[in-house]
Amino acid sequence: MTQLELAREGIISPQMRLVAQREGVEAEFIQQSIARGTIVIPANTRHTNLVPCGIGQGLKTKVNASIGTSSDFGTIDTELEKLTVAIDSGADTVMDLSTGGDISAIRQAIIISSSLPIGTVPIYQVGIDAIDRHGAIVKMTVDDLFKVIEEHARDGVDFITVHCGVTQSAIARLKKQRRVADVVSRGGAFLIGWMLHNECENPLYEYYDRLLEIARESDVTLSLGDGMRPGSLADATDRAQVEELLIIGELVNRAQQAGVQVMVEGPGHLPLNQIETNVRLQKTICKGAPFYVLGPLVTDIAAGYDHITGAIGGAIAAAAGTDFLCYVTPAEHLSLPDPEDVRQGVIASRIAAHTGDIVKGVKGAQEWDMKMSIARKRLDWEEQARLSLDPERSRQVHNKHASAGAACSMCGEFCAMALMEKFLGISAPRGF
Ligand code: SF4
Q1: Which of 287, 323, 291 is CA-nearest to residue 36?
Q2: Do 14 and 48 contact (CB within 8 A), yes or no?
Q3: Share of the chain above pLDDT 90, in %
């Protein structure tokens, strides 16, 4: 049985219990939320070394790090190195988006090495196999597609991005819309090319029940991909994007009825003042299903710094109720990320997620900040490092310039914290 089927039967699984412990909430809350479809636990029954992670309403905002090879660069070793960096930096999940080398071997190595939930986008491998075997993506067959999805499920992938909402009706809207950046989703582009060439409906939509059967068998969580996500601020929240979301809303219902856990992916490039609207739209149309956004990126012009662009958008999105942030690295739009890009991307997204959690009132979020403020007031540098998202960097920066006293080198002997303690005669609070 899937976690959703168990939850509906009123059963609290070991995975639900563990997620409850990690989040500091009641196990019944997890079970009831999974039954309602507002929380998922991506946990393929074949991913044996998995430590389950809950995603959804009432839980900490989670962060995904996407790694993987491209046709230009990457091997099993480079991707395992990125996996280690992602885990050490505090990512909650990892997606393997490999499109180069031995894709199956890379995926299998990542799953075996990861206690974090692993996600994939099977259409990438289907498209690349079709080029190898038949000379073109448009030559893939429906069976090719489902065979690869089955392979990913068999390998232990915990969640898969499937662009089921890219239908002929969404393409018609896209054509009428006349976007600036058209489609920037790789999976969406593969499928649209295939559908237009073959004059067929999207097989992931037409044979959705077949997909549900595969997902149900190993309890693979579906992440309904946004093939129409805007890749330019000019295209944000347009008719093509909304058309796809309406279709996805129906598919969420069908997945849940079939006992399959499901979440929904979202934009993309969005002006800051459209983020909350997008979150509300998704939450309303998809009946509270967990929302997973890429960024969002709040401007198009920050190449080289898009981890910051994504963190600004991610903070607003998380505060508005988004459950899951896909990180953006400084390499976004420019190149395949290296391990340092992965580290910076995870940290930036974790800042965004935590910022949102303070607003959401997630258990422990505000207390964490309070502890840091007290450590700052006490000039307790080791405690500040320990409480930092990146303790090593905190120590490194603090030790850059020596200070004569207990303060840091920023104000030295004119440290406001120390002066106020002296003038007010009030010590910093001890503990919290
Ligand atoms: S020296 Fe300045 S920056 Fe450093 S702890 Fe004191 S007040 Fe803060």
Answers
A1: 287
A2: no
A3: 94
Q: How far is CA 402 from CA 243, 275, 414, in A?
A: 58, 43, 15
**Contact 419 CB / ligand 1 (< 6 Å):** no
Give the position, in ligand 1's atom list, of the atom nearest the Cα of 408: 4
C-alpha closest to that of 269 among 239, 312, 217, 219: 312
Phi, psi at residue 268, to the nearest 5°?
Answer: 105, -160
Position 407, amino acid:
A
Neighbours of 417 (CB within 10 A): 16
Q: Are strands 291-294 and 221-224 parallel, antiparallel or unpaired?
A: unpaired
Q: Which residue has the tokens 């790090």?
A: 65
Q: Is 416 in the pocket of ligand 1 (CB under 6 A)?
A: yes
> Is the Cβ atom of 196 under 6 angstroms away from ligand 1?
no
Amino acid at 303: A
Distance (Å, rounded) from C-alpha 305 to C-alpha 123? 29
407 lines ligand 1 (CB under 6 A): yes
How confident is the model over 272-305, as pLDDT tens digits? 999 999 999 999 999 999 999 999 999 999 999 9
Residue at 206: amino acid letter? E
CA 419 to ligand 1 centroid distance, Å: 10
